[in-house]
Every structure is written in structure tokens, then in C-alpha cells.
Amino acid sequence: MKNRQVRVAVVQSAPVLFDKHSALDKIASMTREAAGQGARLIVFPEVFLPGYPRGLSFGARVGSRTIEGRKDWQRYWESSIQVPGPETEMLGELAKELEVYLVIGVVERDQEFSTGTLFNSMIYIGPDGTFLGKHRKLVPTGSERLLWGQGDGSTLTVIDTPFGRIGGLICWENYMPLARTAMYAQGIDIYIAPTADARDTWQATIRHIACEGRCYVLSCNQFATKATYPADLAYYADIQDDDDILSRGGSAIVGPLGEYVVEPLYHEEGILIATLELDEITQSRFDFDVVGHYSRPDVFQLIVNDKKQEIVRKWS
Question: For residue 254, which of 32, 37, 210, 224 is within the disulfide window of CB 3.0 to 4.6 Å?
């Protein structure tokens, strides 16, 4: 029988950009703080390790790139991680020590084919230190496509835990109705939505997902300032700030009927803590179950290609 309650934490913070050691240190300290408040599931924002390069152009224009921008991008590449790899092993040791589930946004370096491509990924680590899986963002948004490749259907990951099934999508993937449906169809109970979107409209999105999926939504954004950027970047001057704030946050926790469990946090770093009542998920599906009695498969069907896409296959 699954536990009917779980205490969760959503971390709103930012590391020093291009410095994965800063990110790992923050993950360790804030995980300890959240675990000290009883959290068993702890969530960090989109590409927290090593940070979201908001405002940087990397010298890219339509039809052209610059040598200086390539060097900035190389610094970002050098601060990425392999999944799994040494950094996930370190995070596994942390999770095992504190007996918590960790969900962390990372910049993942491809290690299967080119080693050059980066992915915007979300990793799952269990309380025994095991690497449980990952999700690669299916479509990087706008100019993010200069930085990150596209994931495939093999990483639409949902993890079974003693307190329900957890999984999610990254930032504007959550605007993709079919991607959401693919997650709901895996019986998701706690939907994790790391983001870089601090707009008011994002709040409408996460509340809609909670109400549509009849699940808890943990939305996690960075609170980032220009002070966290290295000043020696070639395109540092590109960064526009409002009183030094680049991302005001807006992390929140929403219940399965679309009401806030924890209101959005703005203009400061912090950890949102809540105890989720899992019975409320069951109760919420009494009158609406999006992939159950409301699904109408005689009218609508979704085909999901969950096969890993490989560019090279060898015949033996």
C-alpha cells in the first residue's frame, strides 16, 4: 500500500552560471536544508546544474556565429555533465545519505554519438542513491535550440515511488497537449514542471495542468540575478536586467483541483515545503479522469513513439 502523505520541497535558487561546482554545492546545502524540514521529494529548477544562461546571445545571429560566442558556448559545454556520470554518482550519495528522492534539471552532454551536443534534461535519483532515469526536453524553446538538441520519446519517464508515480515535462513542453497526455497515461500523481518562465501566464499553465491531470504539480523556477554571471564572458553586455534581477522566480505547488497548496514565491531565493495528501488525488478523479472515463478512445487516440532514436545501427 502506498503512503498516503509525502512531504515535498521545491527549491528556488540559482548557482553561479558556468560553474557546476557552485551548482553542486548549492544542491548539497539546499537538499540538506529541505531534508531537515522532513522533505522526502526535493525538486530543483530547469538546468540548475550548471544554470540557465538567460539573456546571453553567444554571438549568434541568423546566418552567422562569432568566435567569441563559440568560446562562451565552450565554457557552457565544459560545465555540463554526463548522465549517468561522476556528478550523478555524487548526487546519488547525497540522496542516499539523506534518504530522499532528488529531481534536478541539468545540462546533459551527449556521450553516445558525437559528445558535442547538449540536452536540457531532468534527472531522477532515488533514496538508495540509484539513478532512476531522465527526461530530455523534446523541443528547446526559441533560441534555446542553439544550445540544446531535441529529446525523443524514450525519455518520457515516470517513476513509481512508495507515495505515487512522479514524472513531468520541462518548461514550455508543458504547452504541448499531446506530451501532457503521454504523461497522464502513465498514471502520474505528482507532476514536476521545472521552468525558466517567471511570467504570470505560467501560473495559469500549472494550475490548468493540475486540474486537467488531477495531480499535484510542483513548479520550480530559478531566482537569478546578473551577479551570478561571470563578468568575463564575451557577451556579458548582452544581459539586460531589471535592478539586477533576471528571473523573479514564481515557484509554486498546486493541488489536484487547481488550487495553490503553496502560493508562488517571487523576488527571493527560498524553499517551498508542503505535505501532499495523496487521497486528494483519488478524490479529485471522481468527476474527471483525463485518461480514464473522460478519455473517449473511440473518438481520440494518441500514438507515442517511445523507441530510442539512433543515428547508427551496426549489423553483426
Answer: 210
220 as an active site residue: the answer is: no
Is residue 267 predicted with pLDDT exceeding 60? yes
Active site residue 171: yes
Specify the number of domains making up the chain: 1
| pLDDT tens per residue across span 149-194 | 999 999 999 999 999 999 999 999 999 999 999 999 999 999 999 9
Residue 61 has pLDDT above 60, yes or no: yes
In a domain, 268, yes or no: yes
Is residue 235 domain-resident?
yes
Residue 44: give its domain's CATH number. 3.60.110.10
Cβ–Cβ < 8 Å for 127, 163: no
Global pTM?
Answer: 0.94
**Known catalytic residue: 173?**
no
pLDDT band at 147 (very low <50, low <70, confident <90, very high): very high
Query: Which is catalytic among the residues 137, 211, 212, 226?
Result: 137
Q: Which member of 46, 87, 173, 212 is catalytic?
A: 46
- For residue 271, give the nearest of 42, 19, 1 by alpha carbon: 42
Bond into 140 cis (ω within 30): no
Which range marks the domain in which residue 251 is found? Answer: 5-284
Checking if the pLDDT of 43 tops 70, the result is: yes
**72 pLDDT above the threshold of 80:** yes
Among the listed residues 26, 134, 171, 220, the single catalytic one is: 171
Q: Which amino acid is at 88?
A: T
- 56 within a domain of the structure (yes/no): yes
Cβ neighbors of 114 (< 8 A, separation 6 or more) are: none
Task: Please give the angle made by the CA atoms of 151, 152 and 154, to the nearest 5 degrees.
Answer: 120
What is the predicted pLDDT for the residue at 311? 82
